[in-house]
């Protein structure tokens, strides 16, 4: 049996170049998805899975992240004077979510390097990694299932998604073997952003991981790979082929709702999809969408 997990790591040091000029002065993780920044959805997911000790790996110009999850006493006092308890509760929600810590990555040397920066905080215990570009619908609790699989198998667990083979070059791809659970596979190999011809499958790694601490020793000697960056995928590949010393790597195939906020078009789709599900917005937004789409014909 694995060790119960209490810590989550959220890498948030990326420059967000796909969203320039919006991200010139604002972290991409703070871009609003309806009325909350994308990063808050990710923190809420971690907390809902029982992980309230969170480390964000940040970089320069990311102070807005810390400010968002801190108190803003002047704003709170103003809302209290006005008797606006609804907005006051929303403002306080973010700074009461979890025990959040911060460490800087320094030079952006890839996801593997960002995860390695968490070593001192995590220590010698399993931990979760959540990437801010992926929002998982709260009705489809992926992380909770991954944590349970880690405890059951004592292995590292990655989230997998079946994608169109033409899109596999955008992801890390997994070579897999079946297990007794149709949603769980044993990973035998990983390739970072392969061509469709070279991909071992159409199972793509998405931004949720539950990792054994052995990953840190491997990342320490992982050489820069694709893009001259230290790739987490390369470290996981080494763990997958050495299960005796690392516990191996398993994949949980996710079949639920996921919203990608790392791409401009998918970001817009995510806002619309989440907004139409809202009780306070959906009733008015849905008919407007029908009317708007009709004007495009």
UniProtKB/TrEMBL annotation:
InterPro entries: GalU_uridylyltTrfase_bac/arc, NTP_transferase_dom, Nucleotide-diphossugar_trans. It catalyses: alpha-D-glucose 1-phosphate + UTP + H(+) = UDP-alpha-D-glucose + diphosphate. It holds the Pfam family NTP_transferase. Keywords: Nucleotidyltransferase, Transferase. One of its GO terms (biological process) is UDP-alpha-D-glucose metabolic process. GO terms for molecular function: UTP:glucose-1-phosphate uridylyltransferase activity. It is an enzyme of class 2 (transferase). The keyword Nucleotidyltransferase applies. Residues 7-274 form the Nucleotidyl transferase domain. Its EC number is 2.7.7.9. The keyword Ribonucleoprotein does not apply. Gene3D superfamilies: Spore Coat Polysaccharide Biosynthesis Protein SpsA, Chain A (3.90.550.10). It comes from the Bacteria. Belongs to the UDPGP type 2 family. NCBIfam families: galU. This is UTP--glucose-1-phosphate uridylyltransferase. It comes from Cryobacterium gelidum. The gene is galU.
């Amino acid at each position: 049996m694995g060790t119960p997990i209490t810590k989550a790591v959220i890498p948030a040091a990326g420059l967000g170049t796909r969203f320039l000029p919006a991200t010139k002065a604002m972290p991409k993780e703070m871009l609003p998805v309806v009325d909350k920044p994308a990063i808050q959805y990710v923190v809420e997911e971690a907390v809902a899975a029982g992980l309230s000790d969170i480390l964000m790996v940040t970089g320069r110009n990311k102070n807005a992240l810390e400010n968002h999850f801190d108190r803003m006493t002047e704003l709170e006092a103003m809302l209290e004077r006005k008797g606006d308890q609804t907005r006051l509760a929303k403002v306080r929600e973010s700074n009461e979510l979890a025990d959040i810590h911060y460490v800087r990555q320094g030079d952006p040397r890839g996801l593997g390097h960002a995860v390695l920066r968490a070593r001192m905080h995590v220590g010698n215990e399993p931990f979760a990694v959540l990437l801010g570009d992926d929002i998982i619908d709260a009705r489809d609790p992926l992380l909770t299932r991954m944590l349970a699989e880690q405890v059951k198998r004592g292995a590292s667990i990655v989230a997998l998604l079946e994608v169109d083979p033409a899109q596999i070059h955008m992801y890390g791809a997994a070579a897999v073997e079946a297990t007794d659970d149709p949603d769980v596979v044993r990973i035998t190999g990983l390739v970072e952003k392969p061509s469709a011809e070279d991909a071992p499958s159409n199972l793509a790694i998405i931004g949720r991981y539950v990792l054994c601490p052995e990953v840190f020793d491997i990342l320490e000697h992982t050489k820069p790979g694709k893009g001259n960056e230290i790739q987490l995928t390369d470290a996981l590949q080494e763990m997958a082929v050495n299960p005796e010393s690392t516990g191996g790597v398993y994949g949980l195939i996710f079949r639920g709702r996921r919203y990608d906020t790392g791409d401009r078009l998918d970001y817009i789709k995510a806002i619309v999809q989440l907004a139409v599900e809202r009780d306070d917005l959906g009733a008015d937004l849905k008919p407007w969408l029908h009317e708007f789409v009709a004007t495009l014909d």
